[in-house]
Amino acid sequence: MDRRQFLQAGLATGVALTLGVALWPTPEFAPQPTPGLSEPVSALFPLLIPVVLDGVAPESVLQERSATLQPEILGLLSTLPPGVRAQLDQIGTLLDNRLTRLALTGHALPMVQWQAGQQQAWLEDWRHHFLDTLKLAYQALRDPILAAWYGMPQHWGELAYQPPQLGREG
């Protein structure tokens, strides 16, 4: 095999692998999209709730309240300015595409098939990444979940937070 044949074989193999990864069928996870948000973003946040809130409350409490937390998060996201929602849509679209997900996270599988440890490692990697863009993306994915969790009055007791008494004179 001469040099030219070797380079052609390498190029053909690279193209074949790229097409194979891009065209490989994946199981679909299709929740109902929220108005103003893309489907990948609507699907992403429910997957991240248990990972982001790990250690905040017992797992049984998280599973019990997860159903009420998802609409809160998506409602919170729908109140964001259009530019911020567009950036969240970009993050969701990039993480929904197999090739960009592989480049950004190191995993080709859809996030539905990831284990909790893989999701936690990915988020920690973005949290401490040397690129500020990925740090901002981490915050954009984490902060709405925490805001929705701590924005619900039933979680304030765990913090010993006493809300102000409006309308009363001290």
Summarize the structure.
The protein has helices at residues 3-23, 39-52, 59-78, 82-96, 98-105, 116-127, 132-150. It is an all-alpha fold. It has a domain at 39-153.
From the alpha-carbon coordinates, what is the Rg to the nearest angstrom? Answer: 21 Å
**Rough outline:** elongated
> Could you give the count of β-strands?
0
**Chain-averaged pLDDT:** 82
Helical residue percent band: 55-70%
Mind sketching the topology for me?
Layout: H1 3-23, H2 39-52, H3 59-78, H4 82-96, H5 98-105, H6 116-127, H7 132-150
Helix pairs in contact: 2-3, 2-4, 2-6, 2-7, 3-7, 6-7
Account of the 3D structure:
InterPro entries: TAT_signal, TAT_signal_bac_arc. Keywords: Signal. This is Tat (Twin-arginine translocation) pathway signal sequence. It comes from Ferrimonas marina. Pfam families: TAT_signal. The protein has 170 residues and is mainly α. It has a domain of 115 residues. The protein contains seven helices and no strands. α3 crosses α7. The relative contact order is 0.13. About 3% of the residues have low confidence.
